[in-house]
Specification:
Helix content: 25-40%
Distance between the termini: 128 Å
Strand content: 25-35%
Largest sheet: 5 strands, antiparallel
Shape: elongated
Radius of gyration: 33 Å
Length: 641
């Protein structure tokens, strides 16, 4: 009997021990910490709840419970947990005030968030090693203090419209519109692309692919998938194009050549085919996440998002430019005016090359990610301006782009918190980029009309500064250049074996958006070829060359140097105003002035002739000012080659 009693007593003691352990709040607390370290938020919440139920004044458990609710985005419960902790000990680790502020901002309880941020700044250490945390809290305080006033501003635009012909049941985002507003590129995880189901994280996620749509009769066409090699079985997204659509920068993740988990790639349209995309290398890409690029219309500057170390916090916006060797230089952070200690992403550089649109959750706004813009002026970025409602919402609003005319496109989670859709919106004038002029057309052989691949240069006609180098398409001869208002330009086209062509464009600051169609026919270099040099100008009624002529004359000198056997006649021509004799004399003097400039540029005198024709060879009607302007011209004729 005694032997039977002993095992029974032992069993009862073991049960009592287990019961006591189960009722020990410290055990529950330790279990919660273990679950949290393993990323199991649900179990951690259960364990921390059990700890505070067993010991209602368990400060550490209330603190960990609040943190875990924040990690799980259960904001109401987080605020409740931190309020219980504050009631128990307002001088507990002051970090809980910061975490409470985060949750209160998510709940749109901004006055309470201000109080929490203020309490944190009053109680938290002010030592050098703690300045980053104080900076974060100060940013939150400014957000909570200034956002209410921003949200009360009157609406300055009509509601955005979702693009029903483009959006799908899956996520659609990262739209970029062409300068002319007739082509829209975007990213989608819809089924039917280069599906990679193994990478799917949601039921409707079939992997990221690149698509485009064309505006036809005011309606966007059904989206089409961009071909290989642009799309692959991996994630391909965030396409950005130069103004002429012939260079693309975008993002690939997990590629065999990857430097980080996502890298920037670049590709060129050669005729009708895209070149094999190339990783931009470890000068541009980092070991971290590099994504969401935009490229300037002229192809000289890329702005992108990166989570690399050394930034202001979260993801920042960086810029990389081509150096004097034509290579991409080292990315530079856009600085603390643009970036915050939180997340900035999806930059878009407008066609004017100065206005930057991007998304942020660090600057005051409407909740989630908001879209802002700033302008690069006098060597620095201006203070970001929130684009306001109804463009921005309480959801995440990102990936804004805009045509040169001013129609905007962006992606938003406002209709479905789980997915993004693409919206269209018309911006008011004060939020649009600086005006630009789009010049486009076809470069062709003047004799055969065959399309030509030509170098298209944009230069400042006053200073001679080379602004950008473009090319017409080798298959179609198509070219497109974007000219921001506020400068005077020379746009020239040249191709080996052909005489160059130039046209000037005067664009004062008050120029409004316009599209100019300019087909360029290049004359073959052969004996008898005669061309008009459009950008040679003289003082009125005189033979002195204006300095703006030097850009054109230097091109002529270079052409002669490249073709050592060429002998030319410089022909001077006038309109019919004034006497025949005066016009003949003036035209001869002007031809002589051009010849003298070419001699100074290093061209042997034996290769140059000058002849004035006065008003005897008009090419237009002298009864109109436009016609007379065409007749006042300088011509080059190849007399020997």
């Amino acid at each position: 009997m005694k032997k039977l009693i002993q095992p029974l007593v032992l069993s009862i003691c073991m049960l009592l021990t287990i019961s006591v352990q189960a009722q020990d709040p410290k055990i529950s607390f330790l279990n919660g910490n273990k679950a949290l370290s393993q990323g199991n938020l649900d179990k951690a919440i259960v364990d921390f709840k059990e700890a505070v139920n067993l010991k209602n004044d368990y400060q550490d458990a209330w603190y960990q419970l609040g943190l875990t609710f924040n990690y799980a985005r259960r904001w109401e419960e987080a605020v409740y947990s931190f309020s219980r902790l504050k009631a128990l000990n307002p001088n507990y680790n002051p970090w809980f005030y910061y975490e409470a502020c985060r949750a209160l901002i998510e709940l749109d309880k901004l006055p309470d968030a201000q109080n929490a941020a203020t309490a944190f700044l009053e109680k938290y250490s002010n030592k050098p090693k703690d300045q980053l945390s104080r900076h974060q809290a100060l940013t939150k305080l400014v957000y909570a203090r200034e956002s209410p006033g921003l949200r009360m501003l009157p609406k300055s635009m009509t509601d955005p419209v979702p693009l029903s012909t483009i959006n799908s049941p899956s996520g659609d985002y990262m739209p970029q519109v062409s300068p002319t507003g007739t082509r829209l590129y975007f990213t989608s995880v819809r089924q039917g692309g280069f599906d990679n189901l193994d990478d799917s994280t949601r039921m409707m996620d079939f992997g990221e692919d690149l698509y485009f749509s064309v505006l036809e009769n005011g309606t966007w066409s059904s989206p089409k998938l961009l071909p290989e090699p642009l799309n692959s079985m991996g994630d391909d997204f965030g396409s950005a194009f130069t103004g002429d659509g012939q260079m693309m920068v975008y993002v690939r993740c997990g590629d065999k050549e990857s430097i980080g988990n996502c890298d920037l790639y670049i590709t060129q349209l050669v005729g009708t085919e895209w070149s094999e995309p190339m990783n931009m290398g470890n000068v541009v890409n980092s070991d971290d996440w590099d994504s969401q690029p935009t490229i300037s219309s002229d192809g000289n500057r890329i702005i992108f998002t990166s989570a690399r170390t050394g930034g202001y916090g979260g993801s920042d916006i960086y810029m990389v430019e081509k150096n004097h060797l034509g290579e991409w230089g080292i990315p530079q952070n856009l600085g603390g005016t643009v970036n915050t200690p939180f997340n900035e992403n999806s930059p878009y550089l407008a066609p004017d090359g100065k206005t930057l649109y991007y998304a942020s959750n660090g600057h005051p706004g409407f909740g989630g990610m908001d879209i802002f813009y700033c302008i690069f002026e006098n060597g620095k970025w201006s203070k970001p301006i929130n684009l306001g409602a109804p463009l921005n919402s309480s959801g995440d609003d990102t990936n804004f782009s805009i045509s040169a005319e001013g129609m905007g496109y962006f992606s938003s989670s406002r209709l479905n918190g789980e997915d993004y859709e693409i919206f269209q919106i018309e911006l008011p004038d004060h939020l649009k980029p600086k005006p630009t002029v789009v010049v486009q057309g076809i470069v062709s052989n003047a004799k055969t009309s065959a399309p030509l691949e030509a170098v298209v240069l944009i230069e400042d006609i006053n200073s001679g500064e080379l602004i950008s180098v473009n090319k017409s398409n080798s298959s179609s001869g198509e070219y497109l250049v974007v000219l921001p208002a506020g400068r005077d330009y020379s746009v020239s086209a040249s191709s080996k074996g052909f005489f160059f062509y130039s046209q000037s464009f005067e664009l004062p600051k008050d120029t409004s958006y316009q599209e100019i169609s300019l087909n360029i026919m290049l004359e073959p270099i052969e004996k008898g070829t005669k061309v008009v040099l459009n950008n040679i100008f003289f003082e009125s009624g005189r033979a002195e060359l204006k300095p703006i002529s030097y850009v054109e004359l230097n091109k002529a000198a270079d052409l002669l140097k490249d073709n050592a056997t060429m002998i030319i006649e410089v022909g001077g021509h006038t309109d019919n105003l004034g006497s025949d004799d005066l016009n003949l004399t003036l035209s001869q003097k002007r031809a002589n002035a051009v010849m003298e400039y070419l001699k100074l540029a290093g061209i042997d005198e034996t290769r140059l002739k000058a002849k004035g024709y006065g008003e005897t060879q008009p090419i237009a009607d002298n009864t109109t000012e436009e016609g007379r302007a065409k007749n006042r011209r300088t011509e080059f004729e190849i007399v020997e080659f």
